[in-house]
Amino acid sequence: MTKLGVDTMQITWPAEGFTRVPYEVYMDPSVYEQEQLKIYRGPTWNYLALDAELPQNGDYKTTFVGDTPVVVTRDSDGEIRAFVNQCAHRGATVCMDSCGNTKTFTCVYHAWAYDGKGDLKGVPFRNGVEGKGGMPDDFDPAKHSLQKLRIETFCGVIFGSFDPHVGPLQEYLGEKMCGYIQRVFNRPVRVLGYNRQSMNNNWKIYFENVKDSYHASILHTFFTTFGLNRLSQRGGIEMDDTGMHHVSYTYGSSDENEDAYKQANLRSFNSKYKLEDQSMLQGRKEFADGITLAIQSIFPGMVLQQIHNTLAVRQLLPKGPGHCELHWTYFGYADDDNNMTTIRMKQSNLVGPAGFVSLEDGGVGELVQRGIVRDKEKSSFVEMGGITVQSQEFRATETSIRGFWKRYRELMGY
Ligand code: FES
Ligand SMILES: [Fe+2]
Predict the structure, then answer these.
(1) Nearest to 395 by CA among 239, 260, 233
(2) Cα(114) to centroid(ligand 1), Å
(3) What's the CA gap between 301 and 333, in Å, rounded?
(4) What are residue 286's phi and psi, to 5 degrees?
(5) 200-229 burial, b if ≥16 CB within 10 A, otherwise e?
(6) Cα separation, 94 vs 106, whole angstroms
(7) Mutate to test the pocket of ligand 1, among 93, 109, 125 (most ligand atoms within 8 A of CB)
(8) To test ligand 1's pocket by mutation, which of 71, 93, 107, 139 has the most ligand atoms within 8 angstroms of CB?
(9) Nearest listed ligand to the Cα of residue 146
């Protein structure tokens, strides 16, 4: 018998370990296939939605875990559920809207109908037509539910897992990362809007960019020129015990070391640029700890950001070896006054697919994918800030990128 399933091709990782990344892992279709099984359907918790997106019973949202389509619902009892968006009959996508409210999900193909728990409730012509045809007598609808995911919620953030054995969510996140999630989700939030972008690069290249605090003020002219984020400001990187999640933070109220940038003569520092409308930079101080910029990554594909007063979750979704999508959800707090909402909306121009800052992150990933196309056997070099995986009180480092690859290799068996 032929065993169908994942190609078991092995990557030979360079002897230097997680300070090198073989370019092959960004391109090879069999690596992509293995990631779907070993990471996204493996022992991970994947961001699905915010509780605030599903306030009423019957509310739902469609999303993905890896490239598997998933529906998240608040069922008729008020419980959060998630199931694979794949009909138990012949596999069609059942729910095609991005969000809505319903009691029943009905597949367009043959109209099998499921409730908000994903249980099969109706099969048209189950007893045939005029006594002919129909399902066999032993057909049991209870055996044909949509495939359910495990669900756990922390501070109003909903995560799902395919793995029946993965430990509790809070254990997966670790105490430090829970602290940073709690810091942002400290009270009820209100969703302000969405953005989506499509990128022609492997998902891991974007995730590296998120973990790469070192690039932020070198690549991004807006950040550096207008003093929003510079490596010379006080800040650092915190990681969980495994190294798979991180947060990079900046105390951006002043830049005592501004001359470091002038002397380095970086493209991104251009004192000739001025903003005609300064209001973009005039936010409100809102976190008591004085941190003005905190970017947190939760393995394998969630990013929680506070950039001044913009708060957002980014969900990174693989769409093939050389393609990925980023789904942005912007939010504020339910008790924000109108002026605060205006500030958040205005500052949201920094981020998103065409943001003054984030546009460059989308672009640079494609530069990497384009640059490495013919050199699978070569590898990247990740030694900024040392060769270890540890929290550091500075940001000229690639430590959290090394942390990502450490955990990635463990899960993938490389
Ligand atoms: S595939 Fe959904 S009802 Fe047939
Ligand atoms: Fe960036």
Answers:
(1) 233
(2) 11
(3) 24
(4) -130, -10
(5) ebbbbbbbbbbbbbbbbbbbbbbbbbbbbb
(6) 6
(7) 109
(8) 107
(9) 1
Give the position, in ligand 1's atom list, of the atom nearest the Cα of 107: 2
Question: Which residue, chain included where needed, has tokens 């419980």?
Answer: 79
| Nearest-CA residue for atom 4 of ligand 1 | 110
Atom of ligand 1 nearest to the CA of 110: 3
Residue 63 CA to ligand 1 center (angstroms) comes to 20
Atom of ligand 1 nearest to the CA of 91: 1
Q: How far is the CA of 87 from the centre of ligand 1 (A)?
A: 6
Output the tens digit of pLDDT for each of the chain's 414 residues: 334 444 556 888 999 999 999 999 999 999 999 999 999 999 999 999 999 999 999 999 999 999 999 999 999 999 999 999 999 999 999 999 999 999 999 999 999 999 999 999 999 999 999 989 999 999 999 999 999 999 999 999 999 999 999 999 999 999 999 999 999 999 999 999 999 999 999 999 999 999 998 898 889 888 788 877 777 788 999 999 999 999 999 987 655 666 666 677 777 777 778 888 888 888 899 999 999 999 999 999 999 999 999 999 999 999 999 999 999 999 999 999 999 999 999 999 999 999 999 999 999 999 999 999 999 999 999 999 999 999 999 889 999 999 999 999 999 999
Contacts of 278 (CB under 8 A, 6+ apart): none
What letter represents residue 153's amino acid? T
Counting ligand 1 atoms within 8 A of each CB, the residue from 87, 139, 146 with the most, and so the one to mutate, is: 87
Nearest alpha carbon, ligand 1 atom 1: 90
Q: Which atom of ligand 1 is nearest to the CA of 123?
A: 3
Indicate if the alpha-carbon torsion angle 71, 73, 76, 77 is positive or negative. Answer: positive
- For ligand 1, atom 3: residue with the closest CA: 110
DSSP string, 151-172: EEEETTEEEEES-TT---HHHH
**Beta-strand (E) ranges in 200-242?**
234-239
Give the number of the atom of ligand 1 that is nearest the alpha carbon of residue 94: 2
pTM of the model: 0.94
